[in-house]
Amino acid sequence: MKITDTIKEVRENVKAWRTEGLTVGFVPTMGYLHEGHQSLIRMAAKENDRVVVSIFINPLQFGEKEDLDNYPENFEHDRNICELEGAALIFRPSREEMYSKNFCSYVDMTGLTDTLCGKSRPNHFRGVCTVVTKLFNAVNPDRAYFGWKDAQQVAVVKRMVSDLNMDIEIVACETIREADGLAKSSRNVHLNSEERKAATILQKALKLAEKKIASGIRTSRDIQKAMIEMIDSEAGVKIDYVEIVDLETMKPISDIEAPALIAAAIYVGNTRLIDNYIYGI
Ligand code: AMP
């Protein structure tokens, strides 16, 4: 496995593979890898001849008061995971490599980014679309792998790839969870033991939604209300949003029809956690 911090070297490697007729899978990450990332790399290795993993904490997708400076890192551990899962190349650029001094071009999106995380984090998806485009241009993969845990990100990236005619297949992979249901996240490391216990309320509320939908309830408002009540009953937890939207457009729906996204974001102490249940795929 190779490790590089330059776009030039990424291009040289991928070009050489392409000359041999090999296919390339790509897994963009911000590092501090866990079993969720690991499952994406594994899937990419299964479906492609070579896999590139990027590790880059993208400043553009963090708001001013967010946790950019506090984002966890452990490159030794990340390297072992990439090696274990059969990645061929880690691309680990510096901020300067990605954003030169005079950088001023952005990829922006309307509509899809007005709800959920896009509403709570105003410039987040502008940062995501810009960095994903830059990474796609550097790596030039056949397929790129994203987690359903960030379902709005999946919708946004799929839309962007289609709107801008990027010749890349976007593969969405299932959310990997802890034994008690909490979605794996690099940010879970910030939770103290009390917060860690309280955090499970997010998955419990989504399970409640799943149960209600399975029992035939289709009114978004009723399900939202039950979820909010449940989350509010947990001390130390604050709701950012609980929304039910169309899986593709991210627009709120009043009656639940498949495929629908039931998504929630909460603060447990200072840590913001997101998770979702997807009905109908
Ligand atoms: P991040 O490092 O948080 O930017 O995540 C990189 C990729 O891993 C994104 O496509 C995420 O959706 C995905 N991911 C993060 N957590 C999980 C998880 N628990 N299960 C599956 N995929 C995940």
- Percent helix: 25-40%
The CATH level-2 architecture of the largest domain is identified as: 3-Layer(aba) Sandwich
Largest sheet: 6 strands, parallel
Inertia-based shape? globular
Average pLDDT rating: 98
Structural class by SSE content: alpha/beta
Query: Major sheet: order of its strands?
Result: 1-4-3-2-5-6
From the alpha carbons, calculate the radius of gyration and give it in angstroms.
19 Å
Instruction: Indicate the CATH topology of the largest domain.
Output: Rossmann fold
Binned strand content: 15-25%
Q: Which segments are poorly predicted (pLDDT under 50) over 5 or more consecutive residues?
A: none
How many E-type strands? 9
CATH-wise, what's the superfamily of the largest domain?
HUPs
| Alpha plus pi helix count | 10
What is the element string, with H for helices and E for strands? EHEHEHEHHHEHEHHHEEE
Identify the CATH class of the largest domain.
Alpha Beta
Characterize the quaternary organization of these chains.
single chain
Chemical compounds bound to the protein = adenosine monophosphate
What is the count of structural domains?
2
CA(first)-CA(last) distance: 35 Å
